[in-house]
DNA sequence: AGGATGCTCAAAGGACCAGA
DNA sequence: TCTGGTCCTTTGAGCATCCT
């Protein structure tokens, strides 16, 4: 006899409620029906799930194993039902995204515009943090998607390259870049710092003078604008700042420092339809 | 039409509990 | 300790529905 999902459902319900009566009540059937269903389930599995004795309801070890391990089947079935139903309806719902303030500030606005045009019923919930925070959010499931600017490896996560490019060394548009050994504004863990040291050492035969170490490219832009030093930022940020100037003497140096931007998630098969839709509107590399 | 399946109903019987 | 009530499960008969 083939395993019947209804029988399994009755059994799980009875096991959780601790008796046939409660399960019968929960499913609006008679106790007898529950009893028969469990008998048939046992028959199809070829083992006893209950210790059958009068006035007692006790699971065998096979029964306990079945209860512990079959819940995911019903969750998967519910998930499939939702997915199948939504195939015929407009994509809607919430997408949780963890990313950096740079991405949120410079890239998300145009992405959101595309998303709202194509999928007006999708809501985007964004949390901001550093790379470790973003990876943690995605791994824990608190965020379905993450966008990171990092060339590290994200163990346990799938990643897709969104864009890559080089850095530019900037200073204030009002300040004439005539200094030979400027003070640098850098971020602590972002790509480029170590490369900067190496390339700078090779070119100027000395260590770069780090003026300020700050965890934000936006802060570097502001500080560079105020004349506090020069800073390397990913070139795409330049499009949004007219008051900064690229230092021609360090242009070559900046081009040698590369950044990569990835979207990360726990696996394509685990994504909701709305997350899939979000990935769809992301610009190709 | 007949078999398979799933259900209800009624009856039987064991375990537990309170009261005499 | 005995008895009766209650709760629970199991079993068998019979009915409805679906499928071949």
Q: How would you characterize this protein structure?
A:
The chain has three domains: 5-87, Arc Repressor Mutant, subunit A; 93-158 and 261-281, D-Maltodextrin-Binding Protein, domain 2, CATH 3.40.190.10; 164-258, D-Maltodextrin-Binding Protein, domain 2. Helix 1 (5-17) packs across helix 3 (31-45). Helices cover 44% and strands 21% of the residues. With 285 residues, it is of the alpha/beta class. Helix 8 links the parallel strand 5 and strand 6. It binds a DNA duplex (20 and 20 nucleotides) through helix 3. It comes from Bdellovibrio bacteriovorus. Residues 3-60 form the HTH lysR-type domain. InterPro entries: LysR_HTH_N, LysR_subst-bd, WH-like_DNA-bd_sf, WH_DNA-bd_sf.
**Termini Cα gap:** 53 Å
Low-pLDDT ranges:
none
Topology pattern, helix = H, strand = E: HHHHEHHEHEEEHEHEEHEH
How much beta, percentage-wise? 15-25%
Oligomer: single chain
User: Given the helix and strand composition, which structural class is it?
Assistant: alpha/beta
Mean pLDDT: 77
**The level-1 CATH class of the largest domain:** Alpha Beta
Radius of gyration equals 29 Å
Total domain units: 3
Major sheet attributes? 9 strands, mixed
Name given to the CATH architecture of the largest domain: 3-Layer(aba) Sandwich
Question: What topology does this entry show?
Answer:
Elements: H1 5-17, H2 20-27, H3 31-45, H4 61-87, E1 93-99, H5 101-106, H6 108-118, E2 122-128, H7 131-140, E3 145-149, E4 158-172, E5 183-186, H8 193-204, E6 209-213, H9 217-225, E7 230-234, E8 244-246, H10 251-255, E9 258-265, H11 273-281
Parallel strand pairs: 1-2, 1-3, 5-6, 5-7
Antiparallel strand pairs: 3-9, 4-7, 4-8, 4-9
The chain binds a DNA duplex (20 and 20 nucleotides) through residues 4, 6, 19-21, 29-37, 39-40, 52-57.
